[in-house]
Amino acid sequence: MTPTKVNEIVIFMAVAEAGSFVRGGRSLGLTGSAASKAVARLEARLGVRLLHRNSRSVRVTEEGQALVGGGQRILDAIEQAEAAVAGPVGTPRGLLRLTVPDAFGRRMILPLVTRYLEAWPDVRVDMAFSDRTADIVAEGFDLAIRIGAETAPAGLMSRRIASYPVWLCAAPGYLAAQGTPSQAEALGRHDCILFRSGTLTQDWHAHDPDGRLHKLPVRGRLRMDSAHAIRDAALAGQGIALLPAFLIDEDIAQKRLVRVLPDLELGTLRIVALYPSRRLLEPRVRRFIDFLAEELGRR
Questions:
Q1: 21-62 pLDDT, tens per residue?
Q2: pLDDT value at position 149?
Q3: 160 alpha carbon, distance to own chain's centre
Q4: Which runs of E-coded beta strand occur in the chain?
Q5: What's the confidence (pLDDT) of residue 226?
Q6: What is the largest distance, in Å, between two alpha-carbon atoms of the chain?
């Protein structure tokens, strides 16, 4: 691919991201007219329309979206080549794309991302907050933070960065009205707020005194695909919830929620970083994983 072709793709991506020829061109030190002409040459060469234009803004077409994904892979390859030249102790720079669970990402990862950006001004971060299991490679992510992953899928590497206990909890008002269960078997007579992803509903498990894992008898009329929403429902007195300690420790301390069956051994949630298997991990990714492991390991 010639430098001219690469430059045209870079200009197109800047315009697509900015939604404007003027702003996109300015980000690259070009006039809006120069950016418009570069995109027009690219469209003519490819024989497709990449942008819908009007007097105020531009909108990426379906073909343009495909080129954005391919163009990002080109830029990633260039940055990876630069990282290889810089060596394993290279300075972090470039775009870091990560996907994180919604509640954990907002509460635990986002504050650390802020500090990481302050430490490394040449790094940019794109974050996706979702409890959906993203296809890391197909969707172009450098890194995914997952909760509860035991093994890495094919083609990915994993590193454990933290673990947190999980607790049963409920609002004081709910327990006052419905009673506090004194043993695990009593959970089946309570409203339990359950986590559901797609067609799968999370089972609740506990370890018996011999260390064997068994399923808890729970029922629930309310199912959600967001741990943060489950916490909100528990605070509203909708029932008993099973949630990680990092999400509810302040609520417990402030007595907004009460632990239920606190002696029950419910295990821990493993927090892992998943990333594409590569011979050389880019400094921006490697340093960020190290930073997460160090900071989360202290808590």
A1: 888 888 888 888 989 999 999 999 999 999 988 777 788 898
A2: 64
A3: 15
A4: 51-53, 58-60, 94-100, 123-129, 143-147, 156-170, 192-197, 200-201, 205-207, 213-215, 222-224, 240-244, 258-260, 268-276
A5: 85
A6: 73
Please compute the mean of the pLDDT values over residues 73-89 and round it to a whole number. Answer: 64
Residue 94 lies inside a defined structural domain of this protein: no
For residue 133, the enclosing domain spans: 99-299
Average pLDDT score over residue span 199-204: 84
110 and 192 together in one domain: yes
Fill in the DSSP letter of residue 133: -
Q: From 254, 256, 231, 233, select the one nearest 104 (Cα to Cα).
A: 231
Residue 89 domain flag: no
Q: Which two tokens stand for residue 10?
A: 């870079």
* 276's tokens: 């594409």
Whether residue 92 lies inside any domain: the answer is no
Token readout for 218 is 């729970």
Residue 298 CB-density burial (10 A; 0-12 exposed, 13-18 middle, 19+ buried): exposed
Pairwise CA distance, residues 231 & 233, whole Å: 5
CB-CB contact of 57 with 23 (8 Å) = no
Last residue of a domain, one of 84, 112, 132: 84
Residue 220: φ, ψ to 5°: -155, 135
Token pair listed for 270: 């493993």
Looking at the whole model, is its pTM more than 0.70? no
Q: CATH number of the domain at 39, please.
A: 1.10.10.10
Instruction: Report the CATH number that the domain containing residue 255 is assigned in CATH.
Output: 3.40.190.290
Residues 251 and 116 in one domain: yes
For the chain, the first-to-last Cα distance in angstroms comes to 48
Instruction: Encode pLDDT of 244-298 as tens digits.
Output: 999 999 999 999 999 999 999 898 888 999 988 665 678 899 999 999 999 997 7
Element (H, E) at 272: strand 268-276
What pLDDT shows up at residue 13? 87
Q: What's the total number of domains in the chain? A: 2
Closest CA to 14 of 46, 47, 42: 42
Separation CA 67–CA 60 (nearest Å) = 10
